[in-house]
Amino acid sequence: MTFLSVLHLLLALAGAPLLAGIIHRVKARTAGRRGPPLLQLYFDLGKLLKKGAVYSRTTTWVFKAGPIVGLAAAVLSLSLVPLGPVPAVAAFPGDLILMVYLLGLMRFVTVLAALDTGSAFEGLGASREVQFSALAEPALLLGLGALAATARDMSLSGIFSGLSLPAAPPSAAPVLLLVSAATFIVLLAENARIPIDDPNTHLELTMVHEAMVLDHGGVDLAAIEYGSSLKLWIFAALLSGVALPVATGSSAADLLLHLAGVLAVAVAIGLVESGMARLRLLRVPQLLLAASVLSLLALALALR
């Protein structure tokens, strides 16, 4: 752990809500509109923190614990993610497996909280969330396995350091390209973005993530929204490290370079959402299976 590792963690905790503002601003500019302020999510979180939560008599402690446990899992997962060559706060062999499990725990408690309400509508959203995650997680794990096999390291920090130019072997280029494509698809799925899901939709029959959190309010909803922004930062940092495998030789310059890469990922998401519509639900599994195929091909190249 270094000073820059702690600095990355602090910047992520403070700047994660900014990514949503960048996405909305890019979408608005593409459509010829002014759009909401870049700091809109900060304002929304502040407003939610001032409100109280209302709980149904049908819910139990599971509903109240879901947002808290989910946010804690997001923070712990963030502490395991490096920013390019800048190591993570907590780095050890096998931390990539723990990171995936923590993200899975975040989803698990959200699904449990949705089912605890006894609402058929939230159960519908939870069912779709579990189905899509069952297809997205193999793509993520296979992609991380391909990176680990190429770098000959089981730590995320060691992987991104070993695959950053000029230290990266020449054979790493096709693996990084395939994993980058797969990771971007998984990012869209895990963060409920178009074309997988529409975070701004209010059409009941098509909602996925939003359907699971309709009964949350106040501080609980603030924890969910903030945890979601941290999750987006985690995947953006992973994608930046894979798609921008560059080490300048200066730790400070590496930090700034990959912070720019994280912001560029937010811009790319905004452009994707501006240029295409949401897929039909029956088409989503096909896209996620394509991500798994890309990761599997990358793993095959890494092990040959």
Task: Tell me what the structure shows.
With 304 residues, the protein is mainly alpha-helical. The chain has one domain (3-303). The chain contains eleven helices and no strands. The protein is globular. The two termini are 33 Å apart. The model has no long low-confidence stretch (mean pLDDT 92).
Labels describing this entry:
11 helices, mainly alpha, about 300 residues, globular, about 0% strand
Tally of separate domains: 1
* Helix-strand sequence: HHHHHHHHHHH
Our count of helices gives: 11
State the low-pLDDT regions, or none: none
The residue fraction in helices comes out at: 55-70%
**How many extended strands?**
0
Q: What is the approximate shape?
A: globular
Rg, nearest Å: 19 Å
Could you say which structural class the secondary elements and strand pairing correspond to? mainly alpha
Largest sheet: none
How much of the sequence lies in strands comes to: under 5%
Return the average pLDDT rounded to an integer.
92
Distance between the termini: 33 Å
In a few lines, what is going on in this structure?
The protein contains eleven helices and no strands. It is mainly α and 304 residues long.
Architecture blueprint of SSEs:
Elements: H1 3-30, H2 40-49, H3 61-78, H4 95-116, H5 120-151, H6 156-162, H7 172-190, H8 209-212, H9 218-243, H10 251-275, H11 284-303
Helix pairs in contact: 1-9, 1-10, 2-9, 3-4, 3-9, 4-5, 5-6, 5-7, 5-11, 7-9, 7-11, 9-10
